[in-house]
């Protein structure tokens, strides 16, 4: 039943489940044009692109009827052809710079009435003459705004207003993003950034519709849920059905111009208590009866469109789901998440690596440096004395003369995460990993916001950090990302606005006392040294 | 049950029907703030506006939570206060012109690589250095695009991304449009034109959802259908129910960000034949059984939002309704309209007035003029000799020495349309009014497109002019607009694309032979003179 070339049979949902599909397979689904027609397709696409940019907006019918061809052909193009096409778009259909310069000269020669556009001006000031002089200013500014649009803007606008066009724009941006990874050309970057700006403006959160996804939805929609579930992969038909049936909810944001394909979706479990591990959420048996549930646990949020990355579609999503669940089930009073900490291990390993380097540096090599950059400036006690001792004890046999930080680094990067298979190791690593995790979540910032992307998402939405859970996710991915630790964020209905506001204005991260206790351990023990 | 101040009780649909409501009543519905709170509301609105423009986009939560207040307060403001507010927006929160000039100087001093942005350039030309020099150009253009945005753009963007915000933007534009009628200030015009541009971009036809409106829809939605039906007013509850039940369909375009309020809606009657008069459509009894219908007749299209006027929301609407009806009822093979001709009388009366003037001019006064502007250049035989004779015969007694064109002009502008009450008059007027109507529809153009707005709408969509119908609408409004004549446009499924395309490219209006016959009458009789 599997079509060649990585494509899948749309209706064979159960077959699909047997060999888990990757998101890329869906994208490639229609890219099976015979090789000999590719050149024609490319020529067609180029022709349509040129025509649709050249034709004035009120005479577009003939161009528009070929839009379907365009998208079909585009999907069939190879990477190399797509690159060629995007480069042509970026370079040939760019800003008309002669026109821009001409208008600028004109604008600069205009007599702009004093004080116009200033902050302090009061409404209604200036007389009829003032207004008269301003008419030319407004007109030229409008022309300038038009002239500063790259010509490819017309193509984007045309695509946006056509059914199916927004999906094509999403594909174009996905391709641009992957091209830019390899080749950061200014023209492609400008194209990508213009397209992103337009997508942000066209994908207003207010136009997104909340849809409860159920087992009664179409296979083609459910297929996408399976393909794009990024947090906790769906392993079987049974697994999918479980996530949509008793004690579970799944909600997606749909955009009317991209039908049948949620742009982002969230999975909810209805439970007695806030779960500590994803295992108990995914394989609870029997499930909590819905009338006995008091907690709605958000255990997975995934976005589905690579071409919409960096565009915040999740705004309002959690708020709206909470409203919906409360209306349907007033006995649910706790709204919490069980979330991954995707950046924790990466941060910790790089921290360990730099500290190992510093601690191994010959003190003499530091001598020539000014005091401000001497090792003491950067050196940090990542591990507490007690923690170091336990780590070395647990691994005594085979560590040689490595320092504890090295041992820890080696353990965390060892293949197949051997450390998780030994009780001794687990109990030696738990205290430092939990403590450092609290520090990572509460203290590590980037431009005043939480360094961890998931933390930042929930804090922005008004949640607080409630609890971190040892071995909350013992899957390979969980161990790899965060040493198996998961975190519960809690949404307190009466605090959402307040929390969001103080996070925005001061960067303050609200957390429970249990989280702050981890930070205190550091301080008290450190000062004993 | 009627609230004071023009407001209506939302749920009292049947009460509403007894005293027909006007669209303006819905808009005023919530404007019943006590007078003493108006000043506070104004202050609040101003404060929120300032704040929401000043706060950076990623720190907006606190501002956004006050959005609901803003819209409630705005609705409560008087015309004068709204004017004050819009003026403040236009003037105080305008383009930062100092910044624009600064960036322009910077841009003009940049070294733009040769040929960049030209039409002829091939993709991939220029080397790494070229790209390097371009980076600064792209960056400055981006900054210029940002700087050329008026500061109020931020307010619009914020409103657009919030549930309910699009509706507020629509209200702002409606107010701007009505202010501009009285006072065409450049600053307000610039504000309106910027807002229109944004609304066009945000209200993509691809994001509109086709919804069949039925008797099961909410009273608050049906209330809007009653209020906004602009073509053939709905007179009673029975009339409304009739338009939604057997043999009838009603479809609306809904935007997800403006829930419960169709932006535009279309009414369809399922009939045996293409109807000739609106009377037989609205009061057919018994209705054609649906299985016996072969024709879907579009008899009314109305848009509901004054603030979206001039924005083409009807694109795709007819096409999508046709697709839907065909799928549901394959036995329907004819898709036609019964449409008003809103501009006919206005055109005819002004034509008559100018010809009367010309024909009364003393030939001597023309002598001094160059031949090219002599009366013969402008003079036209609007009426044929035979037609003139019949008009004068029918009204012999009381016309004195008036010429036939004057008599016709007087009849058409007489109060209460007396001419429609006399059989003699009707039969005297029918031939010239029908003939001139054909000419108006097929020959009168403005910038290459049909002068009549409704004709232009259907021709753009790919319809052809099929038939004109004497006394197709004998209501006061019908007589006043078009001498009671209505027109059938027909959508031939196999010709839609072709017709639309040739209308766009050459301005050719497709019409049936019966329409063209009217034009031939003119020519053959004229040449007899």
TrEMBL record, chains A, B:
The segment(s) forming the Malonyl-CoA decarboxylase C-terminal domain are 207-491
Identify the InterPro entries for this entry: Malonyl_CoA_deC (IPR038917), Malonyl_CoA_deC_C (IPR007956), Malonyl_CoA_deC_C_sf (IPR042303), MCD_N (IPR035372), MCD_N_sf (IPR038351)
Question: Could you give one GO CC term from the UniProt record?
Answer: mitochondrial matrix
Q: Name one GO molecular function term.
A: malonyl-CoA decarboxylase activity
> What biological-process GO terms show up in the record?
acetyl-CoA biosynthetic process; fatty acid biosynthetic process; malonyl-CoA catabolic process
Give me the segments passing through the membrane.
none
The UniProt record lists the Malonyl-CoA decarboxylase N-terminal domain at 139-202
Q: Could you name the domain of life of the organism this protein comes from?
A: Eukaryota
This one is known as Malonyl-CoA decarboxylase, mitochondrial
The species is Iris pallida (Sweet iris)
